[in-house]
Amino acid sequence: MNFENVLVELDDSLATVIINRPKKLNALNRATIKDLSKVFKKLEKDKRIRAIILTGSGEKAFVAGADISEFANYSVKEGKELAAKGQKILFDLIENLATPVIAAINGFALGGGLELAMSCHFRIAANNAQMGLPEVSLGVIPGYGGTQRLPQLIGKGRAMELIMTAGMINAEKALSFGLVNYVVPQEELLPLCIKMAGKITNNSPVAISYAIKAVNAGFKNNAKGFETEINAFGSCFGTADFKEGTSAFLEKRKAEFPGT
Predict the structure, then answer these.
(1) Is the model's pTM score more than 0.70?
(2) Domain ranges, residue 49
(3) Count of domains forming the chain
(4) Dihedral angle at the C-alpha atoms of 71, 74, 76, 81, nearest 10 degrees?
(5) C-alpha 6 chain-centroid distance
(6) Is-catalytic flag, 9?
(7) Which of 95, 115, 229, 244 is catalytic?
(8) Strand 101-105 to strand 51-56: parallel, antiparallel, or no bridges (unpaired)?
(9) 249-to-2, 112, 138, 252, 258 alpha-carbon distances in Å
(10) Active site residue: 4, 59, 78, 135, which one?
């Protein structure tokens, strides 16, 4: 498999998918989202693959966020389309994939990066990892499922705090919150993920696919939540706060939000 922004390594029944934009701290742009969607669809069809590890290149970032320069000038309609398409072709795809996906969080997982990790079936973090959803500091909200999956994983109160403060938490706090399953030194991250994948591949792939479907079914009553997130995300693109937040980010200055 040859993709511009994604590397795929195959080892018997295990596939390792590496987001490869190190100069951009593996930030998600439209091309990367499209590449990842194609990769996961192909891997799911390959019956030899029993488990997938998703990680970022280098030791600084899993995914440091979305590529803000791509959507800073979007309209409300374009904002809604951005969230709806991204959720459909990648984030929902991973969550409902019949093949188990382990997120190996090797550094920063912010914004769309944390949303990507949360769409995986479970997460293991390096001890240098930092996680958060900083979108409100840009005048927008998480648009790739963050307002829905984060409360499911860590509870409503903690999720509200993280989203509203735009703060980051370290790997140990993420572990105590239940956001990640394990925290290990950077050099032990992939070996542990491979070990966990090995335990998974010893079991029935059919039973595992049914288990994924059954567990996910317990959260399906939040379908309207995702729709609400998409609409609210898009609406943010019509606000002065969004224009100020993204401009300040791109100009590397502190935002002064007008509140409109």
Answers:
(1) yes
(2) 6-187
(3) 1
(4) -60
(5) 15
(6) no
(7) 115
(8) parallel
(9) 33, 16, 7, 5, 16
(10) 135
